[in-house]
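Appendix B. Extra example for self-study. Work through it before the problem class; the solution is given directly after the inputs so you can check yourself.
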Amino acid sequence: KAGVTQTPRYLIKTRGQQVTLSCSPISGHRSVSWYQQTPGQGLQFLFEYFSETQRNKGNFPGRFSGRQFSNSRSEMNVSTLELGDSALYLCASRADSAQETQYFGPGTRLLVL
Amino acid sequence: AQSVAQPEDQVNVAEGNPLTVKCTYSVSGNPYLFWYVQYPNRGLQFLLKYITGDNLVKGSYGFEAEFNKSQTSFHLKKPSALVSDSALYFCAVRDTGATNKLIFGTGTLLAVQP
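Solution. Structure tokens for the complete assembly:
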């Protein structure tokens, strides 16, 4: 099976712009979670989607949002970008509620100038 | 609140020697524990997990981890290190309650010298 894919892999934006990142989970997986990785804060949970519904949300401002489509693909959007949003954004997929292991994609590296 | 601690920022080991990367946890209830590895400019790769059962868990690439409830530890081990094992290692615990959020440690950089 193909792994989790994320597009784009690299992105450069300027402050104030918005960005949309995409994640395609492993085929058959219904849960997608997003994490932000920065040198200062480490790995932090953003949100989880399961069957198109947001199940959990981390402690991030409302500028960070996401959605999941009927084919389980997910997007996350960050509006009004700030310099501090520069990070590696990781997507992870999980088969279903009984499956504990999350499998991660390669990430999208976002640089905000 | 659930938490994970990785007390060592970096571990240095010579190729062929055994390696240990330490992790301690604090959770209410039974812990679901994971180890992931991250190579430069890559995502996280799953190594192994402990949910229940045997305290010694075997995973990918010859890695294993020992769950110790009394010491609240879940150390990652390998009998013989390879240079290619050099990477950033993360311990994680699944948050409790109605969430599958993973709470990660700060990571340990493993450097294996030839």
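Self-check: Chain B has a mean pLDDT of 94. If your reasoning did not lead you there, revisit section 3.
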